[in-house]
Amino acid sequence: MRRSAAAAVLLLIAAIVAHPAKNASYDTILRHGTILDGTGLKPYRADLAIQNGYIAAVGDLSAQHATLDLDVTGLYVAPGFLNIHSHAVPAALPTAQNMLTQGVTTEILNPDGGGSTDIAAQLSGLSSAGLAVNAGAYIGFNSVWASIVGQADRRPAAEEISRMRALIEHNLTQGAWGVSAGLDYKPGYFAHTDEVVQVVSVAAPWRTNFPNHERLTPETNFSSRTGIAETIEIASDAGLVPVITHMKVQGHEQGSAGEVIGRMEQSGAAGHYVAADAYPYLAGQTSLGALTVPAWAQDGGRVAMLERFKNPEQRARIAKEIEQALDMRFGGAEGVYLPQTQRQLVDIMRARGASAGETIVQILEQGNVPAILRFGREDDLVKILQNPSTAIACDCGATLDTRSHPRAWGTFPRVLGHYVRETHALTWEDAIRKMTGLPASTVGIVDRGFLVPGMRADVTVFDPNTVIDHATYENPALPSEGIRHVFVNGQLALRDGKVTGVRGGTPLLRSAHMPSRPMSIHARRGVSLAAGSDEASTVRMAFQVSQAAGADRATGSFRVTDPKTKITIQATMIGLLQTADGWATFTGRARLLPSGEERAFTVLVDLADPTAVGNNRSVVVDVEDRYHLTEWVMPHLRHLQISGSK
């Protein structure tokens, strides 16, 4: 009996250990961490709670319990990092080890104008195998152009312009996060500036963004400044937000980053906000022939190019023009490294006894290969990283390739370890803003990028004393260190630096009322609405929310009573208020009556919704998976005001 009693006690203890928080108030609590909330405001000490995949509370939670309780004393707690320039490989997205170990929780695919022209099918296919991180997608201008105009350098007919516009608009309705372009790549290179404007301006009512790999041409001596100016011109004329993607100043223009940033600031002062993204390296990676072989030689695609290689006169001209591009853009043949074979181009030239141009032609005859191309100066890079509207993006993505660019394993920790801790080029709070709140605002995301109640629980926890990259050009797949824990939609995807195998990611779709915008955290702002009547069938809604300039939290009230669902939603706390011209959104926690359960909510107020019925005004309310309301006409609207926007 004593043995039975002892066994019973041991079983009871085991049950308590296995289920330490049977009466848990939250799924997860991160205790005693330093919060960097994504706004760029100063860090502060607090606990953070996660419930049902959302941020539930930030503050002193010492009296609360959780199923998973993690002590993160001495660690920094930040929103999950958003990579808005992702070349993720589908086969790698179910694990995404190289991204999770960098703290990345969201990837936006199809940059540089590439990718599928059916992003609904693309994202559906990706999610069928499970996603370790969230994935959204742009619609790529180059892919749209190639699908209708083809690979040849020719002018599109008016009917073809219309078809391209329709294809872009269709993908925007399917949730595309902008219209990306790579005008330096063929066949997008062949499109004239005015033709690009005609095609992408269909996206103007959607108030989205235009990230472009700028076009550098021999006619401009491969001028980065001219290419960046064209990106700004196209987007501004088309009614979109220009994004200078993987921003750099290369070739003979090195040292002039200040001039480029000045051009961006001038455009902003004129009413055309310009954003950018950049990675912390002085070399990029693309296919060897893409930016070296002259455009006329690529006209018609690879088969036509190989035929030109067979013509001795054309071959000699192509080789000469390849060398001109190398000299003007990448510092000559010394600036080219082939990661798959881990050889410098100059070594291959010596072995073959051939010139740089001829060597590249010979390599391309066997097949196109990746190339790392050196382009920049450190002082330019620092200025670009410090530019307030530059987000951090790696120009990489989830990958299984171990012989590529070190940015695929090191970008985000390199910024934190080298450019924050070691050189102090950035502060902790601004670096995190550039990885979270800023990229979310740039592409239009409203429920990620900040650590406030009501936001999705994408969270990265890192050690500020050890975070650093280790990947090099010779050993590009060496993992970074210092990223300790990563949550994706509230699920623990990385614990103690090790991937857990959890596939908590989800496809992300943009709606019509998620505009690209500058961050509004430093402006005093507010939104208020009163709608409804005493009629029994009318939805009654009222809210009044404001946030002081530089405050980390909004205040106010929010209430909805819906007689159809017999639900009343009463806010218990307000998170972050964001505003833009004629638009506002805020998050928080609310109690649902009569059940009394508490849930996260998001409210969007839009005075220029292109899908609105009857007028351009809409109000959208989402309460997790419990309630959704879209009100367009609002016949009983008594009051609606947004302040603090342009």
What's the topology here?
Blueprint: H1 2-18, E1 26-35, E2 44-51, E3 54-59, E4 66-71, E5 76-79, E6 81-83, H2 97-100, E7 104-109, H3 119-128, E8 134-137, E9 139-140, H4 141-148, H5 158-173, E10 179-180, H6 193-200, E11 209-212, H7 224-238, E12 241-244, H8 257-269, E13 275-278, E14 283-287, H9 295-298, H10 302-310, H11 312-330, E15 336-338, E16 343-344, H12 345-352, H13 356-366, E17 370-374, H14 378-386, E18 390-392, H15 407-422, H16 428-435, H17 437-443, E19 459-462, E20 483-488, E21 491-495, E22 498-499, E23 525-531, E24 540-547, E25 555-562, E26 567-580, E27 583-593, E28 598-606, E29 618-623, E30 627-631, E31 637-643
Helix pairs in contact: 4-5, 5-6, 6-7, 7-8, 11-13, 15-16
CATH topology (level 3) name of the largest domain: TIM Barrel
User: What is the name of the CATH superfamily of the largest domain?
Assistant: Metal-dependent hydrolases
* Largest sheet geometry: 9 strands, mixed
Structural class: alpha+beta
Strand segment count: 31
Quickly give the CATH architecture of the largest domain: Alpha-Beta Barrel
Indicate the percent of residues in helices: 25-40%
User: pLDDT average, as an integer?
Assistant: 94
- Runs with pLDDT <50, length 5+? 1-22
What's the N-to-C terminus distance? 78 Å
CATH class membership of the largest domain: Alpha Beta
The percent range for strand residues is 25-35%
Structure description:
- The chain is α+β, with helices and mostly antiparallel strands and 646 residues long.
- It has three domains: 81-282 and 375-499, Alpha-Beta Barrel (TIM Barrel), CATH 3.20.20; 287-371, no CATH class; 525-643.
- 28% of the residues lie in helices and 27% in strands.
- It has 17 helices and 31 strands.
- Strands 1, 2, 3, 4, 5, 19, 20, 21 and 22 form a nine-stranded mixed sheet that branches. It has a nine-stranded antiparallel sheet with strand order 30-29-28-27-26-25-24-23-31, with no helix packed on it.
- Helix 6 runs parallel beside helix 7 (224-238) and helix 15 (407-422) runs antiparallel to helix 16 (428-435).
- The longest helix has 19 residues, at 312-330.
- The termini are far apart.
- Residues 1-22 have low confidence and may be disordered.
